[in-house]
Amino acid sequence: MSLTNILIPTYAQMLRTLSALLDKAQKQLPGPEAQALLSARLAPDMYPLSSQVRFACLQAQEAIFRLRGEPLPELLEQLAREGRLAGEEPGSISDAQARIDDALSRLGTLEPDALDAGAQRQIALELPTGMIFDMNGDQYARDWALPQFYFHLVTAYAILRSRGIELGKADYVPHMFAYVRPGTGGS
Q1: Which residues contact 178 (CB under 8 A, 6 or more apart)?
Q2: CA 113 – CA 138 distance, rounded (Å)
Q3: How much is the pTM?
Q4: Are 60 and 11 within 8 A, CB to CB?
Q5: Domains plus CATH for the chain?
Q6: Tens digits of residue pLDDT in 73-106
């Protein structure tokens, strides 16, 4: 399977899931309480929900540029900075939804094979700490891009659950209902 076929549908369906989780939180809590969720953390040394949303959006878009050997645009550099500073400036749920919409829009512009040539491209991934990882595109997709994306997505889910938002497995993987065999309890 190609990198494009693995990454882009995965990012898109899970970003839509993240959007739906935020919608559900907003429906379950009054306005100010829902907005306060954006500052919620699982642990004091972890980033808040607002950062998790931004980082999930960043991860989904960053892969596009890295796998095509292109520099990250300033817009994504800004998203990374916002994510690191979101504890002080969490924004609103509308802001979070806009970040998700922007990421989905960018993903939607890609050609069916847009990332495939990057499978063997050498990628140097430098973290803000100065640590640098050297890998090829396949390794980057498998060992960094998808795990990091899911880390932030699952952390956002866990923050919402820890704050009493009623969510279940079906809210996390709603795309799976397209595969339910008729007559097996899901239809």
Answers
A1: none
A2: 14
A3: 0.94
A4: yes
A5: 3-179 (1.20.120.450)
A6: 999 999 999 999 988 889 999 999 999 999 999 9
